[in-house]
Amino acid sequence: MNSIFDGKLRVLDISMGWAGPLVGQMFAEMDAEVIKVEDTHHFDWWRGSLSMAPPEMQPIERAAVFNTANRGKRGVTLDLASVRGIEILKRLIEVSDILIENFSPGVMDRLGLAYEAVRAINPRLIMISMPSFGSDGPESNARGYGNTVEAMAGVTGLTGYHDGDGQRYTLSNALGDPVGGLHGVFALMVALRERERSGRGQLIELAQVESLIPFVADAMLDFQFTGKVPAVRGNRHREHAPHGIYRCAGDDNWIALACESDEQWRSLADALGIDDQRFAIASDRKANEDALDAELSRAIANLSADDCVARLRDADVLVAPVNSAPAVMADPQIQGREYFVAIDRAVVGTHLYPGAVARLPDTPLRADTPAPLLGEHNRQVFADLLAMTDEEITELERSGVIGSSPRQ
Amino acid sequence: MRYHALSDLRVVDLTHFIAGPYATKLLGDMGADIVKVEPPWGEGGRKLGPRRAGVEDRGGLFAFLNLNKRGVTLNLKHERGRELLASLLDDADLLIESFAPGTLAALGLAPDELIPKFPKLSVISISNFGQDGPERDGKLNDLVLFARGGWTFPVGEPGREPLTPPGSLAQYVAALYGAVAAMQAIAARDLGLGHGQHIDVSILEATVATMIYETVTFQYSGILRNRAGKRFAVGPFLIVTLKCKDGYAGLHCVTDKQFEGLCDLMGRRELASDPRFNTALNRMLNNDAILEIVEEFFIGRERKWLYREGQRRAIPLVPIPSVAELLEWEQTRARNYFEAIDDPVLGRIRVPGTPLRLTSHRGEASRPAPQLGEHNREIFGERLGLSDSALETLKRAGTI
């Protein structure tokens, strides 16, 4: 065995967007057999919109984010509004170990797939539901996605410039989604271990907002200790100065730097040729932070980011370039550990994708298998798992229960 | 909240600060037996803020991150300290550590030598940059991590410096990868491998892992995602943080249906068929124009009204809470999400509960974070069989 599951665990992924699909993708990394089910009418919305390009361009096969979050899965389609579509989905549930769903609240009920019904089909199956705010409580029906979850978890209220006009900002990675997904993987790993012991599956409910709130525990405790909501700090730190982002020479080049001790400050000041006694002691630097930032901005403005980072690293200061996407991918440490993996996928060709994070030497994770085209594995999956004949599958295609092109 | 699902797993926890302790907390919340091993002077994270006035040696975050663990002290520079660690590892399933790479090896505890000695043990190392690579020994804090890992560049106003995300969010993401890796090690061992392995988790890579909107999309489109102000990005959607009459609202308007709902909410149904906005592509091309209309509408409305009326039209639209409001949010109250902890030093604090609800188990109250060396007697005495006088000798020698 050189993988964790060696193809012996089957995951049925009927989720959309990022949080749910990430769960399936991480099981694919562990060499589980992951089957992504999409509705022929309402395909995964993360494929984007049909209106973005002419049909011959296959716009829904060109979504970078979909093609990342669905790597390593086999793709099938089913018309979930049809009796036969649901009947086939139930047959897939019967032969699976895990079911991942993140529909809006109430949808699984309407499909006749509430957990009780699923358990009746397959009592060993572990089902995970990932509602935004929870399946009970007064706001269980509210809709949310990565950014709305981030907002409701308290993150957005803390994101703003220290000297701005009060505007708050959303982060750039829809944080609620990957965080929800990672919790989902963890929960399922726990439930699988539990199943080894009890022989029974279960329903796991994961409210995405509840998985992100712990990340701001710090600010919540601050409020409890002081009675005040902590002010937005922007790029500044509660105690240390300097702690900020400064413009370098060139178009849109910036570095982030921080000093956490007087000693670090002295070596930074030496490296940049700053000689100003106002800033020698930590408490003075914090009290005069505007002047300090102005002085640093002047000293850094004409240096290239590379030069500045090299000088300050040598001086043992906390420093990094503010990396844009290509700079992240070119980072020497990221490249040195070959973090990104190349994948050739139909329609779009070869690109680099983020690799599996954990390095397991004896059972390596695999993140280098492409995402499926819509309905790409219909024949294979329905023949292999449900023993359907070619004629049966052709009939399903003809009647529109399955398909490989989007229906409006 | 603490479940019992992992009560047969034994974890020796050599982590400090945030990423490592949150990883072991996730396991502890699921019932794993966590023995937190600190040096006799305490791990660095004990004093992390926020602090209650008058309490210097126990920060609030420590009290949260170390729930459901027991705490012992060991000086690993002492031979006797390392021997006692080995006794703890004897029946452990996991050693989770977050030292700088090479630290354990310098102590004679190199993971690759531990695993043959303790065949069922896996070692999970969570480090800033990973166990190898040209810059593995660099320095890092949250500001620098966010900048280097790509989170900062696309956030903030186009005309201003990029804006760093708040707090230590990426450390928690790395913690999750660490906790998942721990379960992967156990699954691999029990499903066939038969023995443990040394797993390497890089906090920088965990940070980069979530940046798929940038790294992969950039390669596909050739367009660099840049700061878009209050918007998530300029795209065929409107994902935006809006000022309203009494605070902020978060709007996520992506599909045609959501856009029709938004037009209806604003009493401007004609906008849905306006040639500037009638398709996703047109909404991307005329994103500034639609944003202006929406901003003007939101600024005059209250959050509660927007939330109710937006959700009634199936638009993901939420009232953005402060951390204070979040503690009182009726949804989290109804679900008993926050847990009150009677911390022995800080008194009563309310902390986020576990997000995982396993229907197989009933949760019980969390155990407060340990005081320094609180469980020395229980673990070294009761579990390892050391006598009171032996413990006293170790204490005098500074080993515990």
Structural class of chain A: alpha/beta
Largest interface: A-B, 152 and 148 residues
Compressed to H and E, one letter per element, the order of chain B equals EHEHEHEHHEHHEHHEEHHHHEHHEEEHH
Which class best fits the helix and strand makeup of chain B?
alpha/beta
Kindly, what is the distance between the CA atoms of the first and last residues of chain B, rounded to a whole number of angstroms? Answer: 30 Å
End-to-end CA span of chain A: 45 Å
The CATH architecture of the largest domain in chain B is 3-Layer(aba) Sandwich
Number of H- or I-type helical stretches of chain B: 17
Strand order of the largest sheet of chain B: 3-2-1-4-5-6
Per DSSP, what share of the residues of chain A sits in E-state strands of 2 or more residues? 5-15%
Low-confidence runs of at least 5 consecutive residues of chain A:
none
CATH architecture of the largest domain in chain A: 3-Layer(aba) Sandwich
Shape of chain B: elongated
Number of domains of chain B: 2
> Main β-sheet of chain A, in a few words?
6 strands, parallel
Helix/strand order of chain A, N-terminal first? EHEHEHEHHEHHEHHEEHHHHEHHEEHH
How would you describe this structure to a colleague?
- The complex is a heterodimer of chains A (408) and B (400).
- In chain A, helix 1 packs across helix 7.
- Chain A has helices spanning 19-29, 64-69, 83-94, 107-110, 115-121, 146-152, 176-198, 208-212, 217-226, 262-272, 282-287, 289-300, 305-314, 325-330, 332-336, 378-386, 390-398; strands at residues 10-13, 33-39, 74-78, 98-101, 126-129, 203-206, 243-247, 254-258, 318-321, 340-345, 349-354.
- Chain A has 408 residues and is of the alpha/beta class.
- Helix content of chain A is 38%, strand content 13%.
- The model of chain A has no long low-confidence stretch (mean pLDDT 95).
- Chain B folds into two domains: 10-209 and 335-396, 3-Layer(aba) Sandwich (Rossmann fold); 238-320, formyl-coa transferase, domain 3, CATH 3.30.1540.10.
- Chain B contains 17 helices and twelve strands.
- Chain B has helices at 19-29, 60-65, 79-90, 103-106, 111-117, 142-148, 169-193, 203-209, 212-221, 256-265, 280-285, 287-299, 303-312, 323-328, 330-334, 376-383, 388-396, and strands spanning 10-14, 33-38, 70-73, 94-97, 122-127, 198-202, 238-244, 247-253, 317-320, 338-343, 347-352, 356-358.
- Chain B has a six-stranded parallel sheet, sandwiched between helices. Chain B has a three-stranded antiparallel sheet with strand order 7-8-9, with helices on one face.
- Classes of the chains: A alpha/beta (408), B alpha/beta (400).
- Chains A and B meet through helix 2, helix 6, helix 7, strand 6 and helix 9 of A and helix 2, helix 6, helix 7, strand 6 and helix 8 of B.
- Strand 6 (203-206) of chain A pairs antiparallel with strand 12 of chain B.
